[in-house]
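Fig. S4 source data, part A: sequence.
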Amino acid sequence: MSATKLSAPEKTVPPRPLAPSLGAKPLPALFPPTLLAGVALVAAGLLYALGWWNPAVWAIVTAVGYMVLITAASALVENRRKAKDRLVTAIVYTCFGIAMVPLVSLLWTVLSKGLVRLDGYFLTVSMNGVTPSMDAGGAYHAILGTLLMTLMAALISVPIGLMTAIYLVEYGQGRLKRAITFFVDVMTGIPSIVAGLFVVALWILLFGPGKTNGAAGAISLSVLMIPVVVRSCEEMLRLVPNELREASYALGVPKWLTVVKVVLPTAIAGLTTGVMLALARVIGETAPLILTAGSSAVAINANLFEGQMMSLPVFIYSQVRMGGVINYERAWAGALTLIIIVMLLFLAARLVSHFFAPKTR
């Protein structure tokens, strides 16, 4: 009779204790902003007492003092790891604030100086018959010229740029694709004055010397705008997942219809933003328009193909060049008008992206 072996009871491994916390009690949530406010007040008081008050110096002293104190406090109360995190966070916010200073300063300067003359009269009259010393005149002719030339440049650039981007992403391959990409990159970096000189040379060959008009200005803007449209649209089209294309091909949809019905609607938000970036790139150009559209137009001209045409950037330049308080006020008002136009264009782009982008939910 064989003895049956009794199986030894399984050893139960006791649960491992939970790892201790990486740090002690964290700093209160209100401690960082309170510390920042305290450092700012102390720095302001010290600078006033020493007679060294300056907003830039005050900001630097506040930022450095806050970084030192928040790092030391975190190291004492929390741990070294958290202290490093708070230090890097403070550095990131400081860099963000430094980057915002020029933008805020620029907007404040343009608003404070441009609102002096920006009104309905300035937006609805031209400079026709107005001498530099007269307290009259407006920028209606320049606004009209800017909108017309930019519209014509967009009508030229957007189809060419979008079709080129579609070719590079969907069809292009081999040496031709590499050559197009290379030339697009080169054109992206050309100075604007070169585009103006190119159109001037082209216009002289076609129509003879001295033929400046709004169409020539629009073509010079399109030379600058096309590579920006190509590059931005190309990147947006590359973001469309290949699974969407493959699903369309699996249903028997041809490639061109897949591009039209699947790829473009999916990327419409990014494409619109790219086009707006290209418009913002060229709407403020001055040098090519001085050479091609002229700089002495003072009357309202709605014909792109006849006579010189004023634009807002050239209007600002001409007013500053003439000098005088009144002309400077017109220049600042023109700059504010140009910023408002760009903001309206981006608002329109956001609305297009919101209403025409495919719904994800």
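Fig. S4 source data, part B ends here. The chain has a mean pLDDT of 85.
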